C-alpha cells in the first residue's frame, strides 16, 4: 500500500545485528569448535508497529541500546529490515550522525552539492539553495575549506543547514543537535518549527526533554527494541523517567532518619491540573505541590514552608503557611495556577516546624522538575509581552 507524502509506517519491523568478535581463533577454539567462532546477536527492533501521519512531529526516546537510531536508519533506507516494513512517503532527508555522507577532502560548498545529490536533488535545485544554506550555517570563509578541517560543531552546522533547506516531506534527525552551541540549537529549533508549519513530518531522537517538548506533541518510548509507550509528550516523559527508575523517587529527603523533627514532611509530589504526577511542565501551566505532614508528637502550631530554587540553588520564590494544631498526619496542596517560570531545571524544597517557619537550610524534602524552553524568551521569570509601534517620523524627501 502506497503512503501519502509525509506519512511514515513501520509494520512488524524487526532487525537483528550479529556481534562477532573481531579476532583470530585461539588454539582452544581450534580444538573445541573446529575453528568456528561463536556468533552472538542483538535484536535492535522487535516487531515494531508505528504510524506517523503527515505533518506530525514525533519524539523518539529510550535508554541507550533501545533501538532509536536503528529505527531511523531503517526508515532512511540505510539499514534493511530482517522482517516487516519501514517506509516513508515522499522525499526523505536524514541527519543521523556528524559527517555522514560528507567527502572529507571536499569543501563545505562542494559537500552541499554532494549531499543534495545523495538525497535525490539535482544540481540546479541545489545551486538555488546554496546561498541560503551557507548563510544559515554561519561558516563564513570556512565554507570553502575542506570538511576534514571542520570541528564537530562546524560539521553539525553544515549538515543541519543542508537538511533544513531541502524542503523534504519527512525529516529524520538524531541526537546530533546536542553538539551545537545554545544559540545555534535555538536557530535549529526555529527552522524545524518553520518546516513543520509548512507541513513536513518530523521524527526526532533526543535525550533532552526540553528539545522534545519544544517541538513534538507526541512521544514514542522504545525499550529493548519494542514500543513501550506511544502518546502525549508529558505522559511519555513521565513514563520514561519511571522506566529509568527516577519517576517514583524524584522527591527525596536530605535529613537522616535519626534527625527527624517534631513536624516532618513525609511525602512530596508534583502534580498537573488533572492531578497527574509530572516532572516536566510548560510555562503557564498549573503546578500543584502535594505534601503530607506528620507530627511525631502533638504540635500546637505547625508551620510549613515551600521554596522554588533554580539549578544553581538560588532562591526564585518562598512562601510559608501556618497549619495550626496538628496531631498525626494531614495532607496539604499548594497550588500555582500559572507557572511563571521560563525554561530550565528547578527544585521545590519543603519543610515544616512547630511554632515557627523553618529556615532555608532546614527544608529537607526536595523534588526536581523541568520547565520547557521557549523560543521567544529566556531567563527565569516569564515577563513576555507584546510589541507595538508607537509612531514613526515621516521621512521628508
What fold name goes in the CATH topology slot of the largest domain? Rossmann fold
**Number of folding domains?**
2
Write the H/E string, N to C.
EHEEHEEHHHHEHEHEEHEEEEEEE
- Low-pLDDT stretches are none
At CATH level 2, the architecture of the largest domain is: 3-Layer(aba) Sandwich
> How much helix is in the residues?
10-25%
**CATH homologous superfamily assignment of the largest domain:** P-loop containing nucleotide triphosphate hydrolases
CATH class of the largest domain: Alpha Beta
Which class best fits the helix and strand makeup?
A: alpha/beta
Task: Please tell me the overall pLDDT.
Answer: 84
Helix segment count? 9
Strand content bin: 35-45%
What characterizes the major β-sheet? 7 strands, mixed
Distance between the termini: 65 Å
* Global morphology: globular
CA radius of gyration is: 27 Å
What is the number of strand segments?
Answer: 16
